[in-house]
Design goal:
alpha+beta; 10 strands; DNA-binding; single chain; four-stranded antiparallel beta sheet
DNA sequence: TAAATCCTGTCA
DNA sequence: TGACAGGATTTA
């Protein structure tokens, strides 16, 4: 699913259609997501609420209402949103709708239903899973200094550590592979053993690849769609992800795919070094 | 720290 | 038909 650039793309595209709009009612066609949804609570929570602002932390979108309530959405592996006219037919995996008083409708579809939705009352704190997130990967708090301290004593491989949202929020499988390639760091390097100098390079690579992807509207591998239905174009700029057998664009060696703790990793064995 | 799990779809 | 898919949590 959506990693940081895809979530940012969704938030930016939705914002003009949501901010300042008032929800008239909702439709719930499916309740079984990662977080089970109570349709009655869902309906009463949103009715009459007007959206004030949105923000993103890692892969989570947080919508705030003027009332002080908040709605947190995580797109899981296959979640996507669109805004359409309220009279438009639901698509096969379109499970939720927020119908605005102006006749438009915000739809949420999620093929695999791994999405998470949290309804936060005014004054209530965010769920622990969000409070425990590491700094957003694009924020100033994400620095070589921070990573050096945070990875101290971490004996896992750096690829796996980058996927840990409690360390850094927003990086997923695609951008972990891409950032490590850009930084010339092996996915098998042990977190604790990376020098501060190399972590500074890594942080810059992470931010660079994320920013470039945001400017391309994210990466579409298969499911991801921007709210206007278009695909994320960063797929054209991937150097290693999904490119096993192809030549490394830096050194010409063959890109290799391996399974690393249950997730695919693509890397160049020649120019990505453990030390 | 690793594997299993939630679910549907696609590809080899 | 089985393996795998952009994720995160629970369990062993």
């Amino acid at each position: 699913m959506p990693e940081l650039p895809e979530v940012e793309t969704v938030g930016r595209a939705l914002a003009p259609h949501l901010i300042g709009r008032t929800i008239h009612d909702t439709e719930v066609r499916q309740t079984a997501f990662r977080t089970k949804l109570d349709p009655v609570h869902f309906a009463t929570f949103f009715e009459g609420e007007t959206i004030d602002s949105w923000q993103r932390h890692g892969k989570y979108l947080i919508f705030s209402f003027f009332s002080g309530k908040r709605f947190v959405l995580h797109l899981g592996m296959s979640g996507s949103c669109r805004v359409c006219d309220g009279t438009v037919d639901f698509e096969r995996h379109e499970h939720l709708a927020w119908n605005f008083t102006d006749g438009s409708s915000w739809r949420y579809s999620d093929i695999r239903r791994f999405g998470q939705l949290f309804l936060i009352e005014s004054g209530e704190e965010l769920p622990a899973s969000i409070r425990c997130l590491g700094p957003d990967a694009l924020s100033d708090d994400c620095s070589g200094d921070y990573l050096k301290k945070r990875l101290s004593g971490q004996r896992a491989e750096i690829k796996c550590l980058l996927l840990n949202q409690r360390i850094l929020a927003g990086v997923g499988n695609i951008y972990a592979c891409e950032a490590l390639w850009r930084a010339g760091i092996s996915p098998f390097a042990i977190g604790d053993k990376l020098t501060k100098k190399r972590l500074i390079v890594l942080v810059e690579a992470i931010k660079q690849v994320l920013r470039e992807s945001v400017s391309c509207g994210g990466t579409t591998i298969r499911d991801f769609r921007r709210p206007d239905g278009s695909e994320g174009k960063f797929v054209l700029h991937l150097d290693v992800y999904g490119r096993d057998g192809e030549a490394c664009s830096r050194c010409g060696s063959s890109i290799v795919q391996v399974m690393q703790h249950g997730r695919s990793t693509w890397y160049c064995p020649c120019c990505q070094k453990e030390r």
